[in-house]
Fold these 2 entries.
Entry 1:
Amino acid sequence: MTAADLLHTLGVPAAALSGGELRARSPIDGQTLAMVHAATPQAMAAAIGQAQAAFLAWRLVPAPRRGELLRLLGATLRVHQPALAELVTLEAGKVRSEGLGEVQEMIDICDFAVGLSRQLHGLTIASERPGHRMMEQWHPLGVVGVISAFNFPVAVWAWNAALALVCGNALVWKPSEKTPLTALATQALLEMALRQFNADGGIPAPGGLAQVLNGRAEVGQALADDPRVALLSATGSTRMGRAVAPRVAARFGRCLLELGGNNAVIVAPSADLDLALRGIAFGAWGTAGQRCTSTRRVIVHSSIQAELLQRLERARASLGVGDPRQAGVLVGPLIDGAAFEAMQAALAAAQAQGGTVLGGERRWPPGCGGDLAHYAAPALVSMPAQTEIVCHETFAPVLYVLGYDHFDQAIALHNGVPQGLSSAIFSNDLREAEAFMSAAGSDCGIANVNIGTSGAEIGGAFGGEKETGGGRESGSDAWRNYMRRATNTVNYSRQLPLAQGVKFEL
Ligand code: NAD
């Protein structure tokens, strides 16, 4: 199907797809898919005003009723999963199964939010005062702003939207300027769910509850700066986080940052190399290396380094690079020319820093737009040390391999980068595996054993430390980020004892 057909199926009006100033482009062949309207900072301010008004009504709707909206969104997504996934492939360049997987994540978080709608619980805490009860309540927070990256153009919105909405908040979304069409389609699906919700006879949702505004960084900045935005959830590069976080902090707003990673896999002498090979190959070169959780570094024991390198090289050379819609293709295009240039610059720097580079050259798969699109052979780089370029996140299919002799050395190399998102060890040694997950082990938000770094389930909290920004979204108790906590103490006695035994007798 063409982009126009897909968008029509997904309920996006044709008028939204032409006459705008933002070019929606497919990385598959570089062709223009649509010209989309870009919002202004003034339009953003107006949208936030509407969202604030919607919040005041939505926060009073009982949470299980709010959960019904997420149930309907999940059902709508199930029906439209193939079309939305195809649009993700077209606009972000993911292979088909990954496009479908991304929409599946949206469905999964909707299911999670439905259950959560009856589980937004606080604690009851023993009071030190007789005849008193102390408890915590979690209340809706306000307007949640979402800034998202191109590489998960719909799932990141869903992780935030499902939790924000079920927690009683309103939502304003600034998607990546590289993926405006998937954003419009997602919004259209949400509006389908809202229409059903408002027609079922229950408490309706207020207008302006969830909005999308396409645009570039300045529109995101308007979202970051507005004091009516109680929480800004920003996903993207560390550079973007550095720009927005101080602005939000300056107005005492809350930030949830999901920034860049530099994820490593340790391969220990006892590792099952077949498993390690598959985990590393998918992590490093799948999604053309364009996941925040992509494997960027392998830290392998010197006794098996030569064997692993040889097997990785065989796997690398066999990967099909090309149109992600074709069977047999596992590596699609880079998002644009700038991404390709950044990859080439990283490979040149790696070479200059003593690395041996295999692959990485430009490819021109037939029927893929010639020079208009940017495909690259995955790269495998042997490094003599963890040099400056290895410490930098290059958002492309580049894998650096480093050797180690002692486990402590592996952990030191592993943690010796500024980012802290995802990590893994392949080992059948229980002591090593536990040490890797211990307080003295991996310093990342995600630490896996015998699976790779890439991909996560929505049940766990997702996010990372250090330059990754410290945020957590998706599962576990990440919902608390989208609520405010109130501590309540109730006195049901006939006395007024003060805390800590303080006396104040009148
Ligand atoms: P990017 O930082 O270029 O853009 C991300 C978003 O931020 C876009 O919507 C962009 O318009 C906006 N933006 C950029 N500068 C801004 C500013 N000054 N003020 C307000 N908004 C601004 O990132 P990208 O190239 O789209 O995505 C790739 C990056 O995102 C990688 O670093 C990757 O690791 C990271 N990422 C992280 C996660 C995570 O969960 N940790 C998930 C996906 C992507």
Note: The pocket of nicotinamide-adenine-dinucleotide is lined by residues 147-152, 174, 176-177, 216-217, 220-221, 224, 235-237, 239-240, 243-244, 258-261, 292, 393, 395, 421, 468 (CB under 6 Å).
Entry 2:
Amino acid sequence: MRLILLGAPGAGKGTQATFIKEKFNIPQISTGDMLRAAVKAGTPLGLAAKKVMDAGNLVSDDIIIGLVKDRLKEPDCANGYLFDGFPRTTPQADAMKDAGVAIDYVLEIDVPDEAIIERMSGRRTHPASGRTYHVKFNPPKVEGKDDVTGEELIQREDDKEETVKNRLAVYHNQTKVLVDYYGDWAKSGQPGAPKYRKISGVGPVEQIRDSAFTALEN
Ligand code: AP5
Ligand code: ZN
């Protein structure tokens, strides 16, 4: 299984990725998680990316494309992969097409902007694993602690309301074009075209998981 999860910031890509990667036994390639790891490690990439991310803008295409191409060379990608938060621009999508990176499904998770701000303000994450919770909608078993490791949960720097508003604007200006990009490709019936599936991301997490699994079955 090789798939792209497409959706606005806070649509639930990371949340659903946890279920999908387990079901299909594939690695989750989250460019956001990779960048946050680089920031934490203080690498040159991390130092360059931090300002851009904290403002809610996009890191340059060249950097992101390089990161993903390197990641795809690792042996765990042989069985498939799940892209979370990538591609995010037309040049990123073109780069994957040009490199012949196969995609079976593009799964769009649709959530209206109004619901996003509340989701972001209550989000808590476990940086080491990328696991995501919400204080109200998807709370951890023990408040403030990761379910698996018991380690401390944190709030992301870019989850402030102002930054979230900018991230939504960036999504509409630069990423939403990929809905038509992949939708049209899917409709073209060309060899190697992915299947395009759209599900609602509003409702209980488990209900959305079930719609995602159904969408990926046919
Ligand atoms: P990235 O980490 O990719 O962030 P994003 O796309 O903005 O998406 P999020 O992680 O915020 O949301 P999500 O859809 O994963 O939602 P989640 O499951 O966590 O990118 C961060 C930054 O890195 C970018 O701004 C950019 O600077 C840079 N970057 C990354 N990739 C890049 C690229 N390809 N090119 C250039 N720059 C790049 O859920 C959100 C919250 O809602 C959680 O609290 C969750 O518990 C809750 N929730 C989930 N599902 C539900 C539900 N059904 N009901 C209620 N609450 C729910
Ligand atoms: Zn995410």
Note: The beta strands are 2-6, 28-30, 81-84, 105-110, 123-126, 131-134, 195-200.
